[in-house]
Design a protein that fits this description.
Layout (H helix, E strand, L loop, with lengths): L2 H4 L3 H18 L8 E3 L2 E3 L9 H13 L14 E3 L8 H5 L4 E3 L7 E3 L18 H15 L6 E2 L7 H9 L1 H9 L1 H25 L20 E4 L8 H16 L6 E5 L7 H6 L3 E6 L7 H7 L5 E4 L7 H8 L4 E4 L14
Parallel strand pairs: 1-11, 2-3, 3-6, 7-8, 8-9, 9-10, 10-11
Antiparallel strand pairs: 4-5
Helix pairs in contact: 3-5, 6-7, 6-8, 7-8, 8-9
Length: 346
Amino acid sequence: MKQHDILNDRSLLQLRNEGLLRLSELFHGVEGKHAFVLFGVTAQGKSDMYMEPEKWMDEALDDLSAKTDSLLDEFVFRPLSVNPWPYGVHFIDSFFGAKPYELQGEKDNWQAENLSIPVGQLEQPDIASHPSFILAQRLAAAFTNARVSLPLFAPPVLSSPLNIALNLFGQEFLIAMLSEPEKARHDLRIITDTIKWLHKWYQKNIPSSQLQMVETCGRIQPPGHGQICGCSTQLLSGEQYGEFIAPLDQEILALYPCGGMIHLCGAHSQHIPTWKKMSSLCALQLNDRAVDDLPLFLSGLRQNQILYAHPCATMPISKIMEISGGHRTVLLGDIHESIPLKTPKS
């Protein structure tokens, strides 16, 4: 069977859609008898993505066509996806002249040097003609031209206004937020508009049923949701985040009819009161240090805000279930048995 036939198989598409429907129901407060467990399957091409993006995409789809049995898992939702991530978390940086580079001997470990200009002097880039966008455009076209309906697709990392500001300026941006707030606001506006332009482009050019905004192993949401990266918010006080960043994060998530998710990986609990009020925020994804604060997020957020909990040494699945009972929670992991929901503690 050819790649095209396998990745358009109706029975497999039904299984994927059933999984997305169960996830959508969870987002709307409807829970089944078992905890929702997610562990997506991604594929990579073997060719040089930067030199031959079309060939890379064809190889990635071929790889996926050999992994469709993952959708048969009765315990874990394992949707297929393709995840081209040119320049890692520094894709947006490149539009502003911060040239990404790979660390020597560490494939796909991308870094970018800070800009030499001071905070407050960013200019709106010509996105459509930039080489990074042209590469991303070719990858997206290669995916849509394949005319396969089963795989999900995630674009490059579009990150978030604060993450990009810190990528571009380092600690100088944090200083500017205190000493020259209007200059910091100027650059945040430019960065936000750039990120929004790219979100809108992907919404227009990738089918909504397949578009996922980042990291499709552990952050898949129902169609119609967006995502931003909130890693660096741990560096801000609750007041700073609420004043400078939260309105911009809200702008980006509000581009999506169903709102979206913020990814966290540090100590961010100071922002829970702001996130509780953020109308377009419907999920938080907790990695690493962030998942240690699961009890605070569960008690402090709205009842209709979902938590994606990534187990770690200090917060294994057993402890996540003890705290949450599986309610309002997506468990992330390669699990081989069903996990019944537990009655919420009074």
